[in-house]
Structure formats: C-alpha cells, structure tokens
Task: inverse folding
C-alpha cells in the first residue's frame, strides 16, 4: 500500500509535462523515491519490486528498459549499507551523502547511456544529482506524509 | 564466530542478480529492439495516470484562453483570416503545379508520388530526460499511427514515430543523438546522413569529404533513401562547415528548420510509400 502510494506519486511527478526550460534543473524523482525507500524503509524493500517499478519510469523517460533498474539497484544497495549512520544526521548532511551516492549513479548512467548510443554530458548528470540532493528534504516530507496517511488508512480498515 | 552468509553478503548477491538482469534488459532493448511489446503494455497501463498528470496543464491553458480579452481574440482572428486567404491563394497555385508535375512525371515514365495523408496531432509531453529527445503525441494505433511514420510540422521535418500505443505515440526527434536521417543538399543534390547532436538546435553531417560543396545557408532536405521519408521534406539550414587543416573529413553543422523546443502541433504522414 505504502509502496504503491509513493510509487504513484513519483510517476505523477515524472509524467507531469514540465516546460522545456526547466528540464536541466529538474530533480530525478525516481532517484528520490528509491532514496526514501533505501533510507527509511529498506527492511520492507524488495529488489524484484524495485526492478519492476523501474520499468514504467524507463518508459516515461524514453530510456532503454533496464537503465533505471540498474541505477535503482545501486542506489538502494548503497543507501541500505549507509542507512544506519545516515539516518542519525541532520538533513543537510543527509543531502550531502545522497549527493555522493547519486553522483556514483550518474557515473554509471553516463557509462550505460554512452553504450546505448546517446551522447550525455556528465555536467548535466551532476547538476541533476545536485538538484535531487537539495530537494531531498521536501520530498522526504512528502513521502513521510503519504506513508503516514497510507498507514492510517490500513489501521482504520483493520 | 562470523556467520557464513551475513546480511551484507545476501544484499550483495541480490545486487549482483539485479545488476545482471538490468544489464541484460538494456542490451536486449537497445541492441535487439525486442521489448517493444513490453513498452507498449506499460505505456497503455500508464495512460490514466498520464492523463491525471496532464490535467493541471490543460486546466491552466483553458483558463488562460478564457481570460484573454475579447479585443485580443478579435485581433488574432483578423490575422488568422488574412493568413487563411493567403494560404488559399497559395494552394491554388500549388494545385496547378501539382497537376503539371504529375503530367511531366507521366510523360517521363517516372512513378507518381502519392499525396500526403496527414494526421494532425498535439504534443502532450516532452521526455524529462535531457538526453532523450522524444515527445509523446496524442494520436496512436487507433488513429492509424504506426512505427516509422514521418512526423512533420509547418516548417519542416520533426522526426519519426518510434513506438505507437493505442492512444498515443512516441516520436523520436531528429535532434536525438541516436537518430540518423538520409538528406541531400537542395542546391547541389549532394547526399549525406544527418545525425542528431543531442541538442534541440543542431544536427550534424559527419565524415564528409573535405572537398564537399556545401556552404552556410544551404538547405537540407530528405533524400528519400531508405524508403522511410518521402524525398524533398525540408530538414535544416547549414550554419557552419568545419574543415580542419590536415583532416580528410569535413563536419557540417546545421540548424533544424522546425523549432523543436516550441512545438505544439505536428502532422503524422500516413501515406503508404510510393504508388
């Protein structure tokens, strides 16, 4: 229920038709979705579910199927390992750690995109990682609120 | 004593399995193009969610239209009426030229070109990925749009349909880095392949002989090779010809005639090749 709710919100944020001038400064909502799951609820996160949920994101972005699955798996793994220590620090330090993790994902993305014939610019991928890390705090609040709401609904049903 | 399989090693095994699966999927999709059905199924399932995402934009544009003053709308109508008159006159000339052209082709024994069957479509969204130049249009398989159809605008070529879904279709713009297009220079009939440069305002002709007769200002049009695009569709204007000293090849940089960043309405060419 919580996974579905957060995933649907992520899909809506990705599918929204943004004006072209915003494209370079857009965060990667998919990465922030995985970051939230990797940091907050990694004990509930299934790798299979993550891979399946990444396919619609590939379709929406128009990238090769599997590209976001690869990046999501790497981010989830890194944040699962770092989770216990990252959860203890304030949001600024969390954003810095997330930036480093997303930077590694950006490097892998650069490599995979080059192999599939695209000509990516690494600086844009770095900018995307930086914007995503900066927006971690409001997105975390959004997902927390959604999770609390979904949890409340479930408790009411029971 | 340390456990043989710690939680970290289990997570690492899961990661390896996930990475292997993902890399295999990337290779199958990008090299063998074998997952189109999967893509179509996912996009069809996402259709209601996408409509919800488009809703705020549609409402705001309706509100803007509604809020426009009566005077402004009257002024725009006058301009459109004048433009319509001019286009009707041009169309009369075009019909005469078409008839003449068909007659000449018949006399020369050359195959007659079919008339374009154009389907108007609106662009719903541009891919949010800055390296993927792909747009989604609101016409799909149900309207007769299929994979490979050329997409044009009033200014020239836009790209081609790469995946068609029941209610929508993905159009790969000619500026995408993976797009290759057979073109010819209108002035000299010199043929080349135009490759997207990954920028909305640029395409490139690479590996041309250093002696090639192309100058800035030349127009590029589709050559018709490959049977995907009809010949003669305007493509781009040459902006720069780079001839590096000592290098055997020249690089030509051209700007697409269609303003890709400001596109809203396009036409899908549904004509069935040449008859």
Result:
């Amino acid at each position: 229920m919580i996974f579905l709710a957060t995933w649907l919100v992520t899909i809506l944020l990705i599918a929204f038709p943004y004006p072209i001038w915003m494209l370079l400064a857009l965060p990667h909502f998919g990465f922030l979705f995985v970051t939230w799951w990797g940091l907050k609820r990694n004990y509930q996160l299934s790798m299979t579910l993550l891979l399946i949920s990444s396919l619609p994101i590939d379709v929406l972005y128009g990238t090769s199927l599997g590209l976001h699955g690869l990046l999501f798996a790497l981010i989830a793994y890194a944040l699962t390992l770092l989770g216990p220590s990252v959860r203890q620090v304030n949001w600024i330090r969390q954003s810095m750690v997330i930036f480093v993790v997303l930077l590694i994902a950006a490097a892998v993305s650069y490599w995979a995109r080059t192999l599939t014939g695209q000509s990516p610019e690494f600086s844009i991928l770095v900018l995307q990682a930086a914007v995503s890390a900066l927006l971690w705090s409001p997105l975390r609040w959004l997902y927390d609120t959604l999770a609390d709401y979904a949890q409340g609904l479930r408790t009411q049903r029971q | 004593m340390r456990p043989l399989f710690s939680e970290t090693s289990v997570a690492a095994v899961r990661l390896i399995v996930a990475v292997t699966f993902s890399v295999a999927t990337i290779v199958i999709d990008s090299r063998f193009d074998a997952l189109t059905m999967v893509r179509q199924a996912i996009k069809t399932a996402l259709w209601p969610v996408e409509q919800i995402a488009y809703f705020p934009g549609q409402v705001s544009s309706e509100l803007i239209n509604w809020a426009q003053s009566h005077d402004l709308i009257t002024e725009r109508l006058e301009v459109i009426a004048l433009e319509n008159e001019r286009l009707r006159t041009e169309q009369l000339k075009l019909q005469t030229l078409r008839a003449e052209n068909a007659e000449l082709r018949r006399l020369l024994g050359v195959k007659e070109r079919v008339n374009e069957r154009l389907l108007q479509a609106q662009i719903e969204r541009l891919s949010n990925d800055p390296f993927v130049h792909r747009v989604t249009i609101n016409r799909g398989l149900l309207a007769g749009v299929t994979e490979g159809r050329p997409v044009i605008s009033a200014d020239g070529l836009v790209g081609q349909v790469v995946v068609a879904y029941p209610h929508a279709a993905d159009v790969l713009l000619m500026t995408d880095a993976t797009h290759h297009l057979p073109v010819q220079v209108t002035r000299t009939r010199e043929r080349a392949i135009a490759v997207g440069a990954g920028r909305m305002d640029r395409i490139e002709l690479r590996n041309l002989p250093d002696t090639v007769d192309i100058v800035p200002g030349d127009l590029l049009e589709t050559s018709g090779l490959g049977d995907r695009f009809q010949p003669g569709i305007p493509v781009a204007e040459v902006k720069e010809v780079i001839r590096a000293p000592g290098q055997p090849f020249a690089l030509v940089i051209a700007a697409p005639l269609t303003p890709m960043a400001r596109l809203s309405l396009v036409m899908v060419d549904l004509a069935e090749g040449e008859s």
